[in-house]
Amino acid sequence: MTLKIHIAEGAAPYEQVRAQIAEQARSGELPVGYRLPTVRGLAESLGLAANTVAKAYRALETDGVIETRGRHGTYVAAVGPAAARELAVAAQAFAERARRLGLTEDEALAAVRDALRAAHEA
Fold it and tell me: 112 and 69 in one domain?
C-alpha cells in the first residue's frame, strides 16, 4: 500500500488517506482481505497524528471499504452496501440521462463499457 499526503494540496490529510485507500481497494490494488497497517503504524509512516488516520479509517468503515476485526486488525472488505447503493444511484442517474438523450439500451451499454475500459486503462 502506497499513500502520499500533500499538505499544500488543500484536501484535509484524513480525506487524502480515505480517498487513496478507497481507490486502491476499488481498483483491486488492495485486494479483499488485505490487512491494513495499524492506525499508529500508518500515522507514523505518513507523519500524521493517529487521530487523523483513525478518522480516515472510521470513514472507510462507514463506507464499507474496510472492516475492523478487533485485535485481529483492519482489513479491506468486500464491496460493501454503501458502495452498492452509490453505484445504484449513479446507474439510475445514467439510465435517466440516456433515456432523455434518446439512446437505445445497446447504445447506453456500449457507452458504459467504453467508460469502464477507459477507467481501467487509466
Answer: no
Grid cell digits, residue 49: 497524528
User: What residues make up the domain containing 116?
Assistant: 81-121
Please say if the pLDDT value at position 81 is more than 70.
no
The predicted-structure confidence for 9-50, as pLDDT tens digits, reads as follows 778 999 999 999 999 988 888 888 899 999 999 999 999 999
The average pLDDT across 54-62 equals 95
DSSP characters for 74-103? EEEPSS-HHHHHHHHHHHHHHHHHHHHTT-
* Cβ-based neighbour number of residue 89 at 10 Å: 10
CA distances from residue 48 to 22, 53, 54, 65, 96 in whole angstroms, order as listed: 18, 7, 10, 21, 43
Radius of gyration of the chain (CA): 17
In a domain? residue 35:
yes
Residue 2 counted as domain residue: no
One-letter identity of residue 43: A
Query: Contact at 8 Å (CB) between 69 and 29?
Result: no
Query: Tell me, what DSSP letter sits at residue 11?
Result: S
Chain-centroid distance, C-alpha 84? 12
